[in-house]
Amino acid sequence: MGEIELYDVIIVGGGPAGLAVGSELSYHHKVLLIDKDVIGRTTKSWFVPLDVVDEKVMPYSYTGVTRFMTETFGGANVSWRAELFDRYPYINEKTLLPHWLEVLQNNGSEVINQCAYVDSTVKDGIVTVETATGRFRSRLLIDASGYDSPIIQKYKINRVHDYWWSVFGSIGDIPTA
Description:
Elements: E1 6-12, H1 16-25, E2 31-34, E3 46-47, E4 61-65, E5 88-91, H2 93-106, E6 110-112, E7 117-123, E8 126-131, E9 134-143, H3 150-154, E10 164-167, E11 170-173
Helix pairs in contact: 1-2
């Protein structure tokens, strides 16, 4: 049996987070992006603060919202301390996600659909990732598989009392009391 190819980075999850990170890393690193379903397929939409919409993002944005979210998914009222911009443009995932996928592939990185994460181990600074379709190795494993992450489940990270969201690269948590 031959040596398993070594990637610089393996990303689990081919949605907006995995594709965004993967496309940027692919400029200087060999990336493998895997997803249990189809890379770039999402049922989610998202919006960003107006001040992050530059000439690179503008082609992938449209309209906007003038009111920020005021209730959690559980229906609890929350007082937000957030600066509201004139508008929050929505990102058009139907054009942006295929663009990121094309960038990643054009930079020589690889993607595998229907490739579910099963397990991973670390030895001598190398991560070996077991998937439903085979084994892969890398120097870094990035989990972008979402809230029900199998990696979080593996390490038994309890987030029952946490509701968290990320906006523009920052994470804020909402008190549950």
